[in-house]
């Protein structure tokens, strides 16, 4: 057969009458009132429909009718879905991952579950106070006629002696009795803590003036202990401004 210039091969239709007047004489042909068409069923079970426009038989297209077993399987699946269905949930909608829900805190301090909300903030760990290094020595058995300058000359061999910020004098205190007489004790403040150990090693249990013993015996040098002293005897704390002045003077010494 030639259609629109293209040669097509039509399936072989043996003994298929194409004249409607001959349909009544053929037992294979019946008229379907539902489809309003002539139906031809072959011995092997194939069905054909007669197309009035084309004047030929074409294969019939029939919807698939489920078998008894197939109908039973479909019914079981439907019953299973109905048994596990959740009320108010549309199973046709795609599933979405659950959103994390933050606990709401109300004005009265309770959370949404009725429990008491923990509104206390964690306290920050307090930094341990740094240990203050001792930079002073306490000296006993000094000659009673000694001066601040003489003490400074001897003890400056072990390190830089701290100076008063305003007057620039060495921070050396000579202790006196109730009558104002020097009693042989002194407090010397160094700039660095390392000078304390050096002064003890070099000057402890020695003569302040070489070859001249003091009335009380050898000079004794020890690390100052301010636990039993009054606040006025302890070295004053320096602020940032004072520290800068001390650093400048130390740089000049270096």
Write up this protein:
The chain has 254 residues and is α+β, with helices and mostly antiparallel strands. The chain contains 4 helices and 10 strands; from the N terminus they run ββββββαβαββαβα. The strands form 3 sheets. Strands 3-4-5-6 form a 4-stranded antiparallel β-sheet, with no helix packed on it.
Keywords:
alpha+beta; 254 residues; 4-stranded antiparallel sheet; single chain
Proportion of strand residues:
15-25%
Number of strands: 10
Helix/strand order: EEEEEEHEHEEHEH
- The total of helices stands at 4
Q: Pick out the low-confidence regions.
A: 6-10, 228-232
Into which percent range does the helicity of residues fall? 10-25%
Largest sheet: 4 strands, antiparallel
Mean pLDDT: 76
Please state how the strands of the largest beta sheet are arranged side by side: 3-4-5-6
Report how far apart the termini are: 119 Å
Q: For the CA atoms, what is the radius of gyration? A: 58 Å
Backbone structural class: alpha+beta
Q: Sum up the overall morphology in one term.
A: rod-shaped
Short overview:
It is built from four helices and ten strands.
Question: How does the SSE layout of this entry go?
Answer:
Blueprint lengths: L1 E2 L2 E2 L21 E4 L4 E5 L5 E5 L4 E4 L8 H16 L52 E5 L7 H8 L16 E5 L5 E8 L4 H10 L16 E4 L16 H14 L1
Antiparallel strand pairs: 1-2, 3-4, 4-5, 5-6, 7-9, 7-10, 8-9
């Amino acid at each position: 057969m030639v259609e629109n210039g293209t040669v097509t091969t039509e399936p072989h239709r043996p003994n298929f009458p194409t004249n409607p007047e001959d349909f009544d004489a053929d037992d294979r042909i019946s008229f379907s009132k539902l489809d309003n068409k002539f139906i031809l069923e072959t011995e092997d079970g194939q069905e054909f429909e007669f197309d009035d426009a084309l004047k030929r038989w074409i294969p019939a297209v029939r919807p698939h009718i489920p078998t008894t077993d197939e109908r039973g399987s479909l019914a079981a699946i439907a019953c299973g879905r109905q048994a596990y269905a959740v009320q108010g949930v549309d199973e046709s909608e795609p599933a979405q991952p659950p959103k994390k829900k933050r606990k709401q805190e109300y004005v009265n301090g309770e959370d949404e579950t009725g429990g008491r909300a923990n509104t206390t903030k964690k306290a920050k760990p307090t930094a341990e106070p740094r240990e203050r290094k001792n930079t002073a020595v306490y000296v006993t058995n000094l000659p009673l006629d000694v001066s601040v300058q003489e003490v400074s000359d001897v003890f400056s061999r072990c390190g830089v002696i701290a100076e008063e910020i305003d007057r620039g004098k060495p921070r050396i205190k000579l202790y006196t009795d109730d009558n104002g007489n020097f009693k042989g004790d002194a407090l010397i403040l160094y700039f660095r803590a390392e000078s304390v150990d050096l002064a003890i090693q070099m000057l402890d249990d020695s003569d302040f003036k070489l070859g001249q013993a003091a009335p009380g015996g050898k000079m004794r040098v020890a690390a100052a202990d301010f636990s039993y002293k009054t606040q006025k005897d302890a070295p004053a704390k320096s602020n940032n401004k004072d520290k800068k002045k001390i650093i400048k003077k130390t740089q000049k010494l270096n």
